[in-house]
Amino acid sequence: MDVPSQMLTFVKVVEMGSLSAASRLSGQTPSAVSKQIGHLEDHVGHRLLHRTKSGVSLTDEGREYYEKCRALADTFGQAEEHISSLKGQPKGILRVACSVAFGKSQLIKSLPEFLEMHPEITVSLELTDRKVDLEEESFDVAVSFAEQLTNQHVIAKKIMSNERIICASPAFLNRHGVPKSFDDLANFNCLRTSNVVGRNAWQAELDGVEHRVDATGNFEGNSADAVFKAALAGLGIARLSTYLVADKINSGALIRLFPDYVQKHADVAAVFAGKRNLPPKTRAFVNFLADRFRRN
Q: What's the DSSP call for residue 33?
């Protein structure tokens, strides 16, 4: 056992008045406690306790040393009380990384409700479509597509069902016509994403048959948000998430193409380092997101 632990045991022995009483308090045998005190005395080079049949008493050196050890025990106790007070109490700076489009269209507008529920939390948000390393970059949570999860040492909790759909503005379709089939997309101006590997290989399934088209065109953006705005402007055909375009599809600002085709694996997840000893602020945020987007 290390010296600080021996010092704390020494304090217990002095305050309990005997080795046996201290052993009962700490769940150790009297011989184990006696051995710790002996090691501590060897370490400091002084006898600290007089041992008698009725108990223990401090030597002159032991009395001075006890005062220092008592201060250590007080500091240790305060630290224990502080960390215990954090259990179940979400507080502190919550560092979140989130994809640009989801952050702008969904996450940010949900934060007032979360922060009202947890006024002692401060959110530090980075919107990015790059792959982040939670532990290396000290993020508590990353919000991204579940399909992007490759690190086996992190946990992903689904917070929203989502699929990607093919769509374009009425103006674009009026000028260039409507693709006759999914494969016909290869003959149209398709809007690409520039910084996510594999995102421009558009795949969909119909009646158990998978179709794939490599999107090509004269525009690419570094986020789904940029592609979304380009589609609204009539630049071309886009493949975008339903959470981003649902309102525009409903209003007629965008037209969905090939609604019978299913595009899988686009659910949104909250990713965090692990469940064991998860900070209350992280647990509160992940649970909030799952509940919020299930309700909506």
A: H
Work out the burial of residue 164: count CB atoms within 10 Å of its CB; fewer than 13 is exposed, 13-18 middle, 19 or more buried: buried
pLDDT digits 0-9 by tens, 174-188: 999 999 999 999 999
For tokens 């402007």, the residue is 233
Strand order in 155-160's β-sheet?
Answer: 121-127, 92-98, 141-145, 268-272, 155-160
Distance of alpha carbon 280 from alpha carbon 248, whole angstroms: 37
Q: Look up tokens 């990015």; give the residue.
A: 128
Least Cα distance to 31 among 62, 7, 60, 9 occurs for: 9
Q: Give per-residue pLDDT as tens, 268-290.
A: 999 998 766 788 899 999 999 99
CB–CB of 142/94 below 8 Å?
no
The model's pTM is 0.67
**Structural domains of the chain sorted by starting position, each given as residue range(s) with its CATH number in brackets:** 3-83 (1.10.10.10), 92-158+268-295 (3.40.190.10), 164-257 (3.40.190.10)
| DSSP reduced 3-state for 215 | coil
Beta-carbon-side half-sphere exposure of residue 127 (alpha carbons within 13 Å): 13
